[in-house]
Recover the amino acids of this structure.
């Protein structure tokens, strides 16, 4: 059942990325698409994870129309990142999707950027054998350093924090991931 749901979600995301945005094609545009994956590690935020979590997802970044750039090309812009994928721990797998608006500090040509953002995640399950992360709705904080390496090909490092912010009580907690990204920038 999970395999069919994951395939349908990924096909839906791929079709969504291919559909043009007729009303705002000049302002909001797909900036990059890619894959990323990572594992839990030492956590500077919150409590130590009980489980060893892994997350893999397809992601897309949209450039939003608000920003300011100097004549040198350096500046601040806005982005919307969305992802769909899977998170695993102790042999159990959950479908995860995120929507994260953020701010990006970059050179306009995109060769180097620092992105920060906060948003939401939805999970298909929230209980894993040794850890309950609270509920299906979670809050997300992402910090990423991304760089172009050749043509449109890029790589990045993401620190991905997910928790319920005690919405579901104090006996549950989320997790922190260190993720590596490979992307194509348009």
């Amino acid at each position: 059942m999970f395999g069919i749901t994951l395939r349908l979600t990924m096909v839906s995301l791929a079709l969504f990325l291919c559909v043009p945005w007729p009303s705002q094609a000049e302002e909001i545009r797909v900036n990059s698409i890619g894959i990323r994956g990572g594992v839990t590690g030492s956590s500077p935020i919150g409590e130590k994870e009980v489980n060893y979590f892994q997350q893999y997802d397809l992601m897309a970044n949209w450039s939003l129309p608000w920003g300011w750039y100097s004549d040198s090309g350096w500046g601040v812009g806005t982005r919307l990142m969305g992802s769909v994928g899977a998170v695993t721990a102790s042999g159990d797998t959950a479908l995860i999707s995120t929507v994260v608006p953020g701010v990006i500090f970059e050179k306009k040509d995109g060769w180097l950027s620092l992105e920060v953002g906060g948003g939401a995640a939805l999970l298909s399950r929230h209980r894993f054998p040794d850890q309950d992360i609270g509920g299906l709705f979670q809050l997300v904080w992402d910090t990423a350093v991304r760089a172009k390496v050749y043509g449109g090909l890029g790589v990045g490092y993401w620190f991905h924090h997910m928790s319920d912010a005690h919405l579901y009580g104090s006996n549950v907690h989320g997790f922190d991931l260190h993720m590596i990204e490979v992307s194509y920038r348009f």
Q: What stands out?
A: Confidence is low (pLDDT under 50) at residues 19-26. Residues 32 and 107 are 15 Å apart (CA to CA). The chain has one domain: 2-185. The chain has one helix and ten strands.
